[in-house]
Design brief:
Elements (H helix, E strand, L loop, with lengths): L15 H9 L29 H9 L21 H12 L3 H18 L19 E2 L21 E2 L10
Length: about 170
């Protein structure tokens, strides 16, 4: 879809440490402060964590002081400082005790951020779904996330329980 919209893409892989220092940490690192170096200016796909509220998500990812902020700039300069309008809106959200007003401010921030496109979310985030026979015991108990890391061929912490369907005799 990006290419259809006129954005030219070029895939490039990096060694992990280069990726971590220049792309993932982007403008978080002190090396990208004014005059010290240049952060990443392309589009990168990265995993982000879930947040308990919209206000916390906005602060964590889009505010210059957020723990998972990776840079944003409305004028192409000083991405480490973030977008002043976004920082201000998020500060107002954090200080607002009334839920309805906090939600209205969050919606304003989201509308603005949608126009700026600093962060392109995945088109869908669905909960993991894994299916196996009830007769398989303990499968997935060591998975690190829903639907992931179930390695049937190499794991030996699962078993077959012949007392459960479809193996159980009627």
């Amino acid at each position: 879809m990006l290419q259809q919209g006129g954005i030219k893409l070029r895939h490039k892989s990096y060694p992990y440490q280069v990726y971590r220092d220049t792309i993932y940490d982007g403008y978080v690192s002190s090396s990208t402060q004014p005059g010290a170096g240049k952060g990443f200016t392309g589009i990168a796909r990265r995993a982000v964590r879930g947040y308990p509220s919209v206000a916390i998500a906005l602060f964590g990812m889009m505010h210059k002081d957020g723990g998972f902020f990776h840079g944003a700039t409305p004028d192409g300069r000083n991405a480490f400082a973030g977008d002043p309008k976004v920082n201000d809106l998020i500060d107002k959200i954090k200080a607002e005790p009334e839920l309805a007003r906090q939600q209205a401010l969050a919606q304003e921030a989201i509308r603005y951020l949608s126009g700026q496109v600093y962060n392109v979310p995945r088109p869908a985030n669905v909960k993991g779904f894994t299916l196996w026979w009830p007769a398989i015991g303990n499968l997935g108990m060591t998975a690190t996330y829903a639907g992931g890391n179930v390695q049937v061929e190499t794991r030996r912490d699962w078993w077959v329980d012949a007392t459960k369907p479809p193996l159980a005799k009627a």
